[in-house]
Amino acid sequence: MKLKRQKNQPKGPLVLPAAGENVILSTSAGGRLPARVTACESGSLTVAIMVPSKPLSESQLAALVVDYSDVRGRVRLHGAAVVVDPNEPDLLRIDDPRSIEILQQREFVRVQSARPVALSSPRDALHIDTYTVDLSGGGFMLAGPDSLKVGFEVHFRLSLGEDVLPIAGKGMVVRIDRGRPAVAIEELSDLDRRRLVRFIFDCQRVERRRGLETDGRHGS
Fold first, then answer.
1. pLDDT by residue (tens digit) across 75-113?
2. Which sign does the torsion angle of CA 111, 170, 115, 175 carry?
3. Alpha carbon distance 62, 75 (integer Å)
4. Number of domains making up the chain
5. 200 neighbors 208 (Cβ within 8 angstroms)
6. Nearest to 10 by CA among 135, 85, 105
7. Measuring CA to CA, which residue among 112, 139, 142, 107 is closest to residue 203?
8. For a Cys staple, 137 with which of 59, 105, 107, 146, CB 3.0–4.6 Å?
9. Reported pTM
């Protein structure tokens, strides 16, 4: 079963993220900055960078890409990015935003699954053993701990079961939801990504089978 990321041009009007939603700003140098939408108007999107960072240069602003998720999958858009106020270089406005690609939603199907995961970060001198709350092909929600903050870059080793090699990669904490950190996967080998997506599909099949068995018992 061969699974790979599908890149498509969007069909229909572009749906921009609403005010208050979290996004990721990707720079030409490969950096990824967590940000939050502060305003969304026709033909314009204003975002605030949520982590300490150096002011973006004109070349970085020109190549800036906004990553976010909607009902179709993971969306990447580009526009004319400018600093709203020189005294607040973390507040940016993206004019004339337009989608440049969409990663199909099937890769980001989310399932509830408690799997052991080990996190480490040489930069932040941490090593944490915790569990996932849910999983998708694009990231996972963790049960904790509170010490993880938005913007932390982490290495992870995620167990998919006994006698199965864990998958390993790099990610970033992109939001905290009621005390639970959400990690977006940034680096993962093609093999491990296929293994993760296959695991998610297997979880879905198990849940559907349980649902059918429950319905059968209720109908008997």
1. 888 999 999 999 999 999 999 998 777 665 555 678 889
2. negative
3. 18
4. 2
5. no
6. 105
7. 112
8. 107
9. 0.59
